[in-house]
Amino acid sequence: MLRRSLLAVLSLPLFAALSLPGANPAQAQTDYPTRAITIVVPFAAGGPTDTVTRLVAESMSRDLGQSVVVENVGGAGGTLGAARVAQARPDGYTLLLHHIGMGTTPSLYRRLSYDAVGGFAPVGLVTEVPMTIITRKNIPANNLQELVVLIRKEREKLNYANAGIGAASHLCGLLFQKAMDAPMTTVPYRGTAPAMTDLIGGTVDVMCDQTTNTTEQIRAGAVKVFAVTTPQRLASLPDVPTTAEAGLPGMEVTIWHALYAPKGTPEAIVNRLSRALQVALKDEKLVQRFTDLGTDPVAQERATPEAASKFWQADILKWRPVIEAAGQYAD
Ligand code: ASP
């Protein structure tokens, strides 16, 4: 009840601030695009957000008839890349592909150089991705229960890698540490690609990351996996138990990605991008690769500005009371 009324109160200014595309249809360019488009990934190259974006960019470029270039602007939990796009010209040539951090940043960061809610025009949702709890391969634990015991006992020695405050790996880590009741020392990276390199090298110990980054390393035996964070097991990793099966019921988290343009981008351009995104998400090669990595592209009707906007608003509202109750902010 309290939670419901809190959400209702919080929703008013927030929804007013969120922008839908098309402030000025007169600006719409029907010949768009006439040159290369850049999609900013707010994390390091080679990581999960980067992997998703490169597949989407390749397919979108075919539909749009122009190159779609990926630029990695990692750091500060994704806020550096997001700032770059919020402050770019709203002409459809600089876009952002970001994850759940768009839902948490507005509450986690109180002093940003850009408007984390009103600075963007959502183009469409892209995918939902499960997370996996993984460790360096030689950790002396063989299931999640043993890992929890080990972390509780040796948490001064064991550390947790993440991609900065507000990143998916950070949120999953918070849930994991809360479920274990054992806070760990965290080591922040510009993305989970470099974190994975260090996990494989054994210089960090524990991580929770998207299957788009972990599936191949798990299959290769380069890291040890303990659980997937979804209610059901994954077809791509059928032997890996869910968090509930492994002994941490309630520790569930799925990461979502969406594509954004800067606020003020003409409606015709946002809609053209949304159509190209919908085509990309049906591309056989993309679907196959997503499936291999344990994720699914969203259904066509969710790859739209309206669906993305609604989902994003709901996610901001979902995380705000959680973050406020925890009282842990990034600044
Ligand atoms: N998986 C990262 C995260 O924790 C982001 C990335 O590197 O794509 O949010």
TrEMBL record:
Organism domain of life: Bacteria
Keyword check for Signal: yes
Coiled-coil blocks: none
SUPFAM superfamilies: Periplasmic binding protein-like II (SSF53850)
InterPro entries found in the cross-reference section: BUG, Bug_dom1
One Pfam entry name: TctC
Signal peptide stretch: 1-28
Record keywords, A-Z: Signal
Homology family: Belongs to the UPF0065 (bug) family.
Protein name, UniProt field: Tripartite tricarboxylate transporter substrate binding protein BugD
Lineage of the species this protein comes from: Bacteria, Pseudomonadati, Pseudomonadota, Alphaproteobacteria, Acetobacterales
